[in-house]
Amino acid sequence: xxxxxxxxxDGVAVVYASAYGHTGKAxxxxxxxxxxxxxxxxxxxxxxxxxxxAVADAFRYSxxxxxCNTYNAGINPFMRDYIARLMERxxxxxxxxxxxxxxxxxxxxxxxxxMLEQGKEIGFAENTVTLMSSMKPENEIQLKTLADELAS
Length: 152
Prior knowledge:
Layout: E1 9-17, H1 22-36, E2 40-45, H2 51-60, E3 61-71, E4 74-75, H3 77-88, E5 94-101, H4 108-116, E6 122-124, E7 129-131, H5 137-151
Parallel strand pairs: 1-2, 1-3, 3-5, 5-6, 5-7
Antiparallel strand pairs: 3-4
């Protein structure tokens, strides 16, 4: 299984990096929506949880969600490190959903996507969620739509 990069578990790893808690709140909301739809879910806060466990779950589960705030026109350093670790281990054959946050110029989704496109057979969810600082009612709708896409 490991040598073929096939997932061990049908489910979603939700991994996030959040500066002020708003991106984390969105990631946890999405995780709950995925669970409501019957998906197996693992959640990791990159600033607080074991990085090795978060990397292992990206390979263990069939789908991955990366949620990150924009930082210096790029991404949070914890997320940059995380994606680098995935790519140096040839992360591949997964569907990835993206959630970004930015007060005036969100760039996190674009940056994360560019980093992941180096991998083989990485697909991206049609729905990318963009928060403008904090979660709004329209973001809840977007997160539910993303949950529908990833839980199926």
